[in-house]
Write a structure and sequence with these properties.
Layout (H helix, E strand, L loop, with lengths): L13 H7 L3 H9 L3 E6 L2 E6 L2 H7 L5 E2 L6 H8 L9 H14 L2 H23 L3 E3 H17 L8 H13 L6 H25 L10 H7 L10 H31 L2 H8 L1 H15 L5 E6 L3 E3 L2 E3 L4 E5 H4 L44 H18 E4 L22 E7 L2
Parallel strand pairs: 2-8
Antiparallel strand pairs: 1-2, 3-5, 4-10, 5-8, 6-7, 9-10
Helix pairs in contact: 4-9, 6-7, 6-15, 7-8, 7-11, 8-9, 8-11, 9-10, 9-11, 10-11, 11-13, 11-15, 12-13, 13-15
Bound molecules: protoporphyrin IX containing FE.
């Protein structure tokens, strides 16, 4: 039966994955005219799949689990060892409920308010600078916002380095060699820092506001009633700090989209919040960030004539699903208005994972991501004027994972609109 499903005949596809990056799964699905194919990555058999139907299967908790799916190298950089991303069942559900509570509409509104204040302040500083590298500015500002919102003390002069460490952890996920080791060192430093903060809260030496992420993870207990050890609590607290800093990538892509589609500028000025939302969603759909996500088969099943065996590793193509021509009209065109009629299908639009975040592993931070992007868009369109110097590289690689505009999007001659 499995003979009908395309198999990539290479001995190992790891090199092809490194060479094709975000398009690795999509290229092969197009070539084979199929939604799935079998490949070998780092010596093991992997099934790669794409599209809405694949996403529906992938986020079915009876069929898939995360146990054993995330390689240690990803846990030691991006996720943290034994973090929520690697959990299933009651432990996952319980930790996930805390993330969902922290990132409730009230939590999102708090982060949005901080973003409005911090980005407005930044604009005054940008006026005094010859050139502003938007990615670098945004990561530092977002680090301050994340720490203030979470209740983590952060000195003014440490924000830059802490921000760079959070970025390095994300930057390591598709890397080998130097970039991977940089991410590992960054995680070690961040975990030492946040573990100490948690220990101080537990020892009564640092006050933490009830309801804050710092307080919540300091007192949290897994379903067995046991508190997390301080390092594990730090890993989960970092799971809100690091991704807030990562929004800097979408902010740089938003600026690039504005630059490449000046016709959207007027609409962003005149059409208000709804258009800002469509624009942000289209940035998250169109530009590459998360390439794919992995899980293991929990209970054997058959789909499209393929027998998924228990324990088998499966990758779901997020980037390709967001560019699937069956789901999106002219998927390779940037067109915010497509979100006017979006039906809210959580398996079709999967920039931060798929399905219902309360029931599975989809990202709980999409609300925060979109609101912060909208604040920055408003600043770029209504709050400041700027030039985009030609001496920079605005291209981005589809091979390097994760990617962003090479120069980080440089602005010059920034002036606040009075
Ligand atoms: C910067 C933009 C972001 C991107 C591209 C992104 C992407 C993702 C992806 C792909 C997943 C995995 C989905 C899966 O395993 O099926 C995820 C999970 C997660 N994200 Fe995000 N995310 C972003 C922002 C955020 C924010 C702002 C927060 C919190 C403040 C956050 C917190 C989390 C957490 C805690 C998980 C683990 C969820 C689970 O395993 O149940 N993310 N994110």
């Amino acid at each position: 039966m499995n003979g009908e499903v395309p198999k990539d005949h290479s001995i190992d596809n790891s090199l092809a994955l490194m060479q094709e990056g975000y398009e690795f799964i999509g290229n092969r699905c197009k070539k084979y005219g199929a939604d799935l194919f079998e490949a070998r990555l780092l010596g093991q058999k992997v099934v790669c799949m794409t599209g809405e139907e694949a996403a529906r299967i992938f986020y079915d908790n009876d069929k898939f689990q995360r146990k054993g799916a995330a390689p240690k190298r990803v846990q030691k950089t991006l996720f943290g060892v034994n973090a929520v991303q690697t959990k299933d069942g009651a432990v996952h559900q319980s930790r996930k409920m805390l993330f969902m509570a922290l990132l409730s509409p009230e939590g999102v509104a708090e982060v949005r308010k901080l973003a409005e204040t911090y980005f407005r302040e930044a604009a005054s500083k940008w006026e005094t600078m010859d050139r502003v590298v938007l990615f670098e500015e945004a990561e530092e500002i977002l680090c301050k916002i994340a720490c203030e919102w979470a209740g983590v003390p952060l000195k003014e002069d440490e924000a830059k380095e802490r921000a760079e460490d959070f970025t390095a952890m994300v930057d390591a996920f598709g890397a080998v060699g130097r970039r991977h080791w940089k991410g590992r060192r960054a995680r070690t430093r961040a975990e030492e820092w946040i573990t100490e903060v948690i220990e101080n809260v537990r020892a009564g030496e640092l006050a933490a506001r009830e309801g804050s992420a710092l307080h919540s993870w300091s007192v949290y207990r897994d379903p067995d009633g046991q508190p997390l050890d301080a390092k594990m609590a730090a890993v989960e607290l970092i799971n809100v700090l690091r991704p807030i800093v990562a929004i800097a990538t979408f902010i740089s892509f938003s600026a690039l989209a504005l630059h490449e589609h000046p016709e959207c500028k007027e609409k962003l000025r005149t059409e208000g919040d709804e258009y800002r939302e469509w624009f942000s969603e289209e940035v998250r759909r169109f530009y590459p960030f998360g390439p794919f996500v992995g899980a293991r088969v929990k209970n054997a099943f058959t789909w499209h004539g393929y027998n998924f065996e228990e324990g088998q590793l499966v990758l779901l193509d997020m980037y390709g699903t967001n560019h699937d021509y069956r789901l999106w009209e002219f998927p390779d065109q940037f067109h915010p208005e497509r979100f006017r009629d979006w039906d809210g299908n959580l398996f079709k639009f999967i920039p931060q994972g798929g399905g219902d975040p309360a029931k599975g592993h989809r990202c709980p931070g999409e609300g925060v991501t979109v609101e912060v992007m909208k604040v920055c868009l408003d600043l770029l369109v209504n709050g400041i004027t700027y030039e985009v110097p030609e001496e920079q590289d605005l291209s981005y690689s589809l091979v390097r994972m994760p990617t962003r505009p090479e120069s980080g999007f440089i602005m010059a001659n920034v002036k606040r609109v009075q």
